[in-house]
Design a protein that fits this description.
Layout lengths: L6 H14 L3 E4 L6 E6 L2 E9 L7 E8 L5 H16 L4 H12 L4 H12 L4 H10 L17 H14 L1 H18 L28 H11 L6 H11 L3 H5 L6 E2 L4 E4 L10 E4 L2 H8 L21 H15 L11 H12 L4 H8 L8 H6 L5 H20 L5 H9 L1
Helix pairs in contact: 6-7, 8-12, 8-16, 9-11, 9-13, 13-14, 14-16
Length: 411
């Protein structure tokens, strides 16, 4: 049958094939060589061609299934195949040879090849590596790559969303380009996430720690010991990101100048960043146990500390003991928001706060970010010093609080 292939035509033919229990072939009148094989169980798109002139034999290569790809997608893919065929490439032989090379290749092996060819020493690619090798994808690691299907991936993302909608969204954002990368390399015909909509954007959080919660937080960190006692305090005093603080190195700091210089490879936006260290932050650092390791908070001298989830759970329990009422859910990143909001409440301008946070959005975005290169170092130093003084004042004000005294007595 020769007819322009459309969704309506395929639906009609599939009903016909189901009723008459036969196989129907339809050849597209809009693109020579493009066709579809229709049965009651589904529709497979293909491209037919001949290599070697009139004496060459006809070849037919399946390029995808209706439902997993649209008619328009299939026609575009057939057109790309025809361009290669016109250059003398036997696309079916090429695909089969590629699949033969990849036979038995597992998900984790393809991931490693993807990272080896694409990953750079940036925050983005470190996050992609963490996500693609995380425990959330453990069930896929040893799977033959071609056997991974859409519903398995959706089920994984849905399970992660029950724990953390934000993590589910970034996991999907790492998986989709990975599978897209695999298609032209012949590992899969169609990405299993090609037509899947990602998780909805997570509503922006606005959780801040109150003064009472800051007091309870500071008191509770005292019970955590090294390294989390100091890490959590540094997060509140500096307003920097968790990974940046946990990976702090002595070689990044100039104690005499009271500065901490982060290389672009250690920041989320890949831009170098200088953090001013308040006297309170310096005092905290100077009180740390002596060590020959460059990593300030490492417990083994080689890697940043792990175990944040357990440390945060213990911190929450300790804070609940120190607070008279309930403790609403809060996350470690809320310390960064609490610091920036505290500085704003003290009258620090938004553009100074954004420089402290190493943001180039909002007040520092667009043309301002391109042409305004002043770094506001004096203002940033003063803002962080004032914020640390404010935290110290909040904590000191709790010294005679009955709840704090009772908490210390229980400890």
């Amino acid at each position: 049958m020769r007819k322009k292939i459309t969704k309506t035509a395929l639906d009609d033919l599939q009903r016909q094939a189901g009723t008459e229990k036969k196989i129907v072939f339809i050849y597209d009148t809009a693109l020579r060589g493009f066709g579809a094989r229709v049965t009651k169980s589904g529709v497979a798109f293909f491209v037919e061609y001949r290599i070697g002139g009139r004496r060459g034999r006809n070849r037919r290569m399946t390029i995808g299934r209706f439902g997993e790809m649209t008619v328009e997608d299939a026609r575009r893919k057939a057109q790309r195949c025809k361009v290669e065929i016109a250059d003398g490439i036997d696309v079916l032989q090429q695909r089969d040879a590629s699949r033969a090379r990849m036979a038995g290749e597992r998900f984790d092996e393809v991931v490693e090849r993807y990272l080896a060819l694409n990953a750079k020493d940036t925050y983005y690619w470190r996050e992609v590596r963490r996500l693609l090798t995380s425990a959330d994808l453990a069930m896929l690691k040893k799977c033959p790559f071609e056997t991974i299907v859409t519903h398995e991936l959706i089920a994984i993302v849905d399970r992660v969303a029950q724990r953390s909608p934000a993590t589910a969204r970034v996991l999907f954002a790492a998986l989709r380009p990975f599978f897209t990368w695999c298609v032209p390399r012949g590992l899969i015909a169609v990405s299993p996430l090609a037509d899947v909509r990602g998780p909805a954007p997570v509503r922006a959080r606005d959780r801040l720690l109150s003064d009472a919660e800051i007091r309870a937080f500071w008191l509770a960190t005292e019970q955590l010991g090294f390294p989390f006692q100091s890490i959590f305090k540094m997060l509140l005093l500096t307003g920097q990101r968790r990974a940046e603080v946990a990976g702090l190195r002595w070689s990044e700091m100039d104690i005499a100048d009271a500065t901490w210089a982060l290389a672009g490879a250690r920041t989320k936006n890949s831009l170098p960043h200088v953090v001013d260290l308040s006297p309170h932050a310096l005092k905290l650092l100077k009180a740390l146990p002596a060590s020959d390791a460059d990593l300030v908070f490492s417990t083994n001298g080689r890697t940043p500390p792990s175990g944040f989830s357990k440390a945060k759970a213990r911190l929450d329990a300790l804070m609940r003991d120190a607070l008279p009422g309930d403790l609403p859910l809060w996350r470690t990143h809320d310390l960064r928001r609490t610091a920036s909001s505290g500085m704003a409440a003290d009258g620090v301008p938004p553009h100074v706060i954004e420089r402290i946070l190493n943001h180039l959005s909002g007040a520092q975005g667009g043309l301002v970010g391109v042409y305004q290169r002043h770094d506001y170092r004096a203002e940033r130093r003063q803002a962080l010093n004032d914020w640390a003084d404010r935290v110290d004042g909040i904590v000191s004000a709790a010294a005679g609080d009955a709840n704090v005294v009772a908490f210390k007595a229980r400890r």
